[in-house]
Structure formats: structure tokens, C-alpha cells
Automatic annotation (TrEMBL):
Domain Ig-like: 55-119, 128-218
Pfam entry (one): Ig_2
SUPFAM superfamilies the record matches: Immunoglobulin
Segments crossing the lipid bilayer: 230-258
Protein name: Fc epsilon receptor Ia
Entry GO CC: external side of plasma membrane
Record PANTHER family: HIGH AFFINITY IMMUNOGLOBULIN EPSILON RECEPTOR SUBUNIT ALPHA, IMMUNOGLOBULIN FC RECEPTOR
GO MF terms, alphabetically ordered: high-affinity IgE receptor activity; IgE binding
Annotated keywords: Disulfide bond, Membrane, Signal, Transmembrane, Transmembrane helix
GO biological-process terms attached to the record: eosinophil degranulation; mast cell degranulation; type 2 immune response; type I hypersensitivity
Length: 274
């Protein structure tokens, strides 16, 4: 499926489009002032922003690493976290037949690995969600593979076909972290950079010991300026609203001024008053 691409943030494109419309009105203004268009311009921008919401894809169960023959459901959500009414699904940019909000993968195969996106009517495609399908007896699953300092994540030692795993030990960089007789998820809270590394687990299935492949988990330092990415669009929207309001006010004042001049000229040329 051919997907839309936006070389710059869409809200910025909408803003400059609106500015270009206003500029064209200013340049095309004549003595007969046009009807102020500020209100419709704002409505036009609001409608565009409403129809260009980006959906999101979630997984149930929430693991993006699964074993062959596992079952997982991908769910397409709107911005308000509600499921969409219908969706277009793609797998590695190939359109799928499924059109509901849920894409069920039953008895996963290795070839089911790859990037999945969903797209609602009149929306842009979601960010890709990567699903990895692996073959083996044990698989280390993680709630996130990249986390920021101060956040939390948890890991799970998962057995093929959901078979019971006992005598589970979790390792980071070859050092044992925790041991449980029964398979239990391990949570790591308030992480620091030292919590990053190569994780794997060992366990017993049907009285045989198995070891999972390692998984790299990266811990990033927190960005104290990350809040700017949310502030900038708000400031742009405020500036746009102020600019539009000033433009409408200027139009009204010029229209009133021209009307006053025409009225004065009409009085001077009135023969009854000459």
C-alpha cells in the first residue's frame, strides 16, 4: 500500500498553509474590502487537524517478542484510546485483508515477523509496531527494549506453547539477578543506566534445562528539555490564533475607514449641499 509521507510535522504544514491563504488575501485586497475570512480559516484548520489524527497500535498480550505457535492480537486505537470502527492493516507495507479494529495472529509463524501499521478512515498511518516471532523452548520477553532513566520495565521467561517453566533464573550481562522455583515476571523499577545490558533467562521445561537467547535492553538518560516538543505546537497554535484575530480586526477597521471616506466624498459631491 502506498503510504502518505509528511516531510515535516503536519501541524506546521497546516499553519503555513493558513498563513499563505491570509497572505494571498492581503495581497489581493482592493478598495472594496472582502468579507473577513478569519473565522472560516480557523474552522478549516480545526477540521484538518481533527481529520489527521494518528492512530496507535497495541498488543494483547503486550509482548512484541513471541514464540512460534503463540497467539497475539493487534488493536488499532484512536487518540482517545477507543478502538476504531474499521481499519486498514499493513504488514511490511503490504495491505492485509483484515478491516476490523483487531488483527488476530493465531499460531504465529516466523514469517509473521515484521512491521505492522493501521490506518483509520481519513487518518494518517500509525507508527509501526514491530513483532518478532522466534523458534525455541524459552524466550525472554520485555515490556520495553529502550527505557529512560527513572522509568520501569519488567521481563518474563516464556515457554514454548505456554508450557510451565520452573527453576527460573534471570541474568544481566552474565550475572544472576533473581531465581524463582516457579516462572514469575521480574520488575525493575526506577532504572538507571547501569540497568541496561544483555538479559537472558534459564529454566526447566519437562525436566530439561533450557536457555533463552539474550536480549539487549537500553537505558537512556532523561532529557530535561523533552517537554519542548509539546510546548512548541501549542505556541504555534496560539500565534496563529493571535495573527488571525489581528488580521480580522485590521480588515474591519480598514472597511470602516473606507466606508467613512466614501461617505464624506458623497457629501461633498451632493449638489443640494453645494
Amino acid at each position: 500500500m502506498i503510504q502518505k509521507t509528511f516531510p515535516s510535522p503536519f501541524w506546521l504544514q497546516v499553519y503555513f498553509k493558513a498563513l499563505s491563504l491570509q497572505s494571498s488575501r492581503r495581497l489581493g485586497a482592493t478598495e472594496e474590502m472582502p468579507i473577513p475570512m478569519g473565522g472560516p480559516a480557523l474552522l478549516w484548520m480545526a477540521l484538518l487537524l481533527c481529520h489527521t489524527s494518528k492512530p496507535t497500535v497495541s498488543l494483547n498480550p503486550p509482548w512484541n517478542r513471541i514464540l512460534k505457535d503463540d497467539t497475539v492480537t493487534l488493536i488499532c486505537h484512536e487518540n482517545n484510546s477507543l478502538e476504531v470502527n474499521s481499519a486498514v492493516w499493513t504488514h511490511n507495507n503490504i495491505r492485509l485483508e483484515e478491516t476490523s479494529s483487531r488483527l488476530n495472529i493465531v499460531k504465529a509463524r516466523i514469517q509473521d515477523s515484521g512491521e505492522y501499521r493501521c490506518q483509520n478512515k481519513d487518518s494518517i498511518p500509525s507508527e509501526p509496531v514491530y513483532l518478532g516471532v522466534f523458534a525455541g523452548w524459552l524466550l525472554l520477553q520485555a515490556s520495553a527494549e529502550v527505557v529512560t532513566e527513572g522509568e520501569s520495565f519488567h521481563i518474563r521467561c516464556h515457554g514454548w506453547r505456554n508450557q510451565n517453566v520452573s527453576k527460573v533464573t534471570y541474568y544481566r550481562n552474565g550475572i544472576a539477578l533473581k531465581y524463582w522455583y516457579d516462572s514469575i515476571d521480574m520488575s525493575i523499577t526506577n532504572v538507571t543506566v547501569r540497568d541496561g545490558g544483555r538479559y537472558f533467562c534459564t529454566g526447566c521445561i519437562r525436566r530439561q534445562n533450557h536457555t533463552s537467547d539474550p536480549l539487549n535492553i537500553t537505558v537512556k538518560k532523561g532529557d530535561k528539555y523533552s517537554w519542548l516538543q509539546f510546548l512548541i505546537p501549542v505556541l504555534v497554535a496560539i500565534l496563529f490564533a493571535v495573527d488571525t484575530g489581528l488580521f480580522v480586526l485590521t480588515q474591519q477597521q480598514l472597511a470602516l475607514l473606507l466606508k467613512t471616506k466614501r461617505t464624506r466624498k458623497g457629501r461633498k459631491l451632493d449638489p443640494k449641499k453645494s
